[in-house]
Design a protein that fits this description.
This is eEF1A lysine and N-terminal methyltransferase. This protein is α/β, with parallel strands linked by helices and about 675 residues long. It is built from 19 helices and 28 strands. Helix 7 packs antiparallel against helix 8 and helix 15 packs across helix 16.
């Protein structure tokens, strides 16, 4: 049966609607949901004694149900279709004596001014405003003017709509300019009975006397899950807020019907501040055979661990979902600016929302497990936050890792999913002679987290590889006792230069850092200090190297670049592009001793850009080794200008093993995870 118009313009034609309702017969046609879904919003704005006008009533049961439920009785329904008006008069008859149906065009109504307290429109505005042609907009202006005329001051125009951007924008701009208060409600969905994928909204426009001059606009949005409206600054922000909710509804609809091929991510924001509170990733595992108990689970990532490979990368989350054994896993990352009331509180807060992301075929009352590492939400303590003119906003925070280990991290909020610097914290050591307290039957209070920095520990895998690269320096003497001149560009928390300083007793380390704030952070929060063999130069690395190249060539045994790029639009986050341009690399080669080694931490997701960087490096340095850091984007490049020997990976592994033995001195801490030999045995010669 052809019930749709040949062109959108026919929505305004009485002939089309006569034909439509004759073909449809007595079956009610409910635009955008029925009374049960709309009732929670309507009952806020329709009072029993109100005189209500329903424009474009069609054969909807909404007016009848409002009447029968006692919401109000003084209801006048109008429509341009003679067929539907006669149909509704026959259907309602004497059952509802105070309600009437009239054949009338809402663009030219016969009612006196200020005759109604409520005008109700269910889909009529959407049917008329099908495009933004001049004739259409003029018709809508006439409609709004008539509604304004027949409403009393303090009266409400309630418009049920799918809130297409141009429809919402037109309504908001028209009535807000007239001095009306505009509020947009999202209507709660009705599950499988909902006819539309996109959510339904109710615009509530409350009439006020227009104040001369520029009175402030009052625009609000009220999401379905809360009664308290949120104020927005302008019409554009209101339209954007509605669009966000439409996209979310569309996403939920897609996820409920088919498995997602690619991982889907979304933020759930705090209602008060509007800031992200949870970041969700939806991961489907096609390899998992679904059963009743393994279709769906929620995984809460402990605070501070969202940057780890398993939780912070697509491949890691895919592996996590497969090992957890669920067909669909939703990972939930917690944000540092927010406060959480433990796992139970998070479960209560998220239960309703995450069920909207459930996979197809999940039983309605299926219990969905909430998982985590160790069953808790982890520990995150923000120690310091500030803003640097060069690095932007940053935080220093302590987080709990696996087991009892704690770590201190530096995070730039412009790239909050990347740990800029990290150091392990030392567990507190009991004072000598301190007696153990007797055991108490009461549960012991949790131990205070440690605060002292473990300077002997390298947290970052790429730092371990950079240290291992010192094996490329020739000579029969053990490196730890050999005088070395090392230049490190990029301080961060200072763990790399500190390790070289402490473990290579004859090394003199110069560090170049462009941001004085980072020197302060490293000194105050990461245990960094300067001395006779360690000096920091606050300068642009480009300028510092260029000056050295003109004044004092061939003075460094090793040069290390571990400097991040502030330009997030480039596909290379480390180093900045200028640091790998051929003229500058020639200057690096100039200040490096002929048998020295240049070590570069390269983080580049752009394949073409990476190939270009490698080609430039090959032009400048005859010998180039590469070590890819497993599970990360980082690749450590070892470049030599005039090597005495071309080491193969096996030889490098042997040299690294010897170096490791030299560094393991009695009384000096050494972590088995360093595995310098493994680091170099996996290098590739480029």
């Amino acid at each position: 049966m052809d019930l749709l118009p040949r062109s959108p313009g026919e929505f305004g034609s009485s002939r089309y609607w006569d034909r439509f309702f004759r073909q449809r017969g007595q079956r009610p046609f409910e635009w955008y949901g029925a009374f049960p879904e709309l009732c929670p919003v309507l009952h806020k704005y329709v009072r029993p004694r109100d005189k209500v006008l329903v424009v474009g009533c069609g054969n909807s049961e909404l007016s009848e149900q409002m009447y029968d439920m006692g919401m109000c009785e003084d209801i006048i329904n109008i429509d341009i279709s003679d067929a539907v008006i006669r149909q509704m008069q026959e259907r309602s008859g004497s059952k509802r004596p105070k309600m009437s149906y009239l054949l009338m065009d809402m663009l030219q109504m016969d009612f006196p001014d200020a005759h109604f307290q409520v005008v109700l429109d269910k889909g009529t505005l959407d049917a008329i405003l099908t495009d933004e042609e001049e004739a259409t907009l003029a018709k809508v202006d006439k409609m709004f003017a008539e509604i304004s005329r027949v409403l009393q001051v303090g009266g409400r125009y309630l418009c049920v709509s799918l809130a297409q951007a141009h429809v919402l924008k037109k309504a908001v701009e028209y009535f807000s300019q007239e001095g009306w208060v505009v509020r947009v409600h999202q209507v709660a969905g009705s599950g499988d009975k909902q006819q539309f994928v996109l959510p339904v909204f109710v615009y509530v426009m409350t009439k006020f006397r227009k104040i001369p001059g520029s009175a402030p606009q009052i625009l609000e949005i009220c999401p379905e899950e809360q009664d308290k409206p949120m104020r927005v600054e302008n019409a554009e922000r209101l339209v954007a807020a509605v669009k966000d909710r439409q996209h979310y509804a569309l996403l939920c609809s897609q996820l409920s019907k088919t498995p997602c091929g690619e991982q889907v991510s979304l933020d759930l924001c705090d209602k008060e501040s509007g800031r992200p509170r949870y970041t969700l990733h939806v991961v489907d595992s096609p390899s998992v055979k679904p059963s009743r108990d393994n279709r769906f689970a929620i995984f809460i990532i402990p605070q501070g661990r969202e940057t780890e490979w398993l939780f912070g990368t697509e491949e890691g989350r895919r592996q996590l979902a497969a090992s957890a054994g669920f067909g669909r896993l939703v990972t939930v990352a917690l944000h540092r600016e927010q406060h959480y009331e433990g796992m139970a509180g998070i479960q209560v807060e998220l239960s309703g929302k995450v069920m909207e992301l459930a996979p197809p075929g999940l039983p309605a009352r299926q219990q969905v497990p909430f998982l985590s590492v160790g069953g808790d939400i982890g520990v995150r303590t923000v120690q310091h936050c500030d803003t640097s003119p060069l690095s932007g906003e940053y935080v220093v925070e302590d987080v709990k890792g696996d087991g009892a280990s704690y770590f201190r991290r530096l995070i730039f909020l412009s790239n909050r999913n990347v740990v800029q610097s990290e150091a392990r914290l030392l567990a507190p050591v009991p004072l000598s002679g301190q007696k153990k307290r007797r055991k108490d039957k009461k549960k012991a209070s949790p131990a205070e987290p440690p605060t002292a920095i473990d300077k002997s520990y390298l947290c970052c895998e790429h730092h371990k590889a950079m240290v291992a690269g010192l094996c490329l320096l020739g000579g029969p003497d053990p490196l730890p006792g050999t005088p070395l001149a090392v230049l490190v560009v990029g301080l961060g928390g200072g763990s790399l230069p500190l390790f070289i300083h402490d473990y290579f007793s004859q090394a003199r380390v110069a560090v170049v850092e462009i941001d004085p704030s980072m020197l302060e952070v490293a000194t105050r929060w990461f245990g960094f200090s300067q001395g006779d063999r360690m000096r920091v130069h606050v300068s642009d690395g480009l300028d510092y190297v260029a000056k050295l190249a003109s004044e004092a060539p061939a003075q460094y045994d090793a040069i290390m670049f571990d400097v991040d790029s502030k330009d997030l639009m480039v596909g290379m986050s480390c180093p900045p592009p200028a640091f790998v341009e051929e003229p500058f690399l020639q200057k690096v080669k100039t200040i490096l001793k002929p048998e020295g080694v240049f070590v570069l931490n390269l983080v580049c997701r752009d394949v073409r850009l990476k190939e270009s960087v490698l080609a430039t490096l090959r032009e400048v340095f005859p010998l180039l080794y590469a070590r890819r850091i497993e599970g990360e984007v980082n690749e450590i490049l070892f470049c030599q200008p005039s090597p005495k020997h071309r080491w193969d990976p096996t030889e490098l592994g042997a040299r690294a093993r010897a170096l490791e033995g030299d560094l393991r001195q009695p009384g000096r801490p050494w972590d088995s995870s360093y595995a310098l030999a493994d680091m170099l045995q996996a290098v590739k010669i480029l």
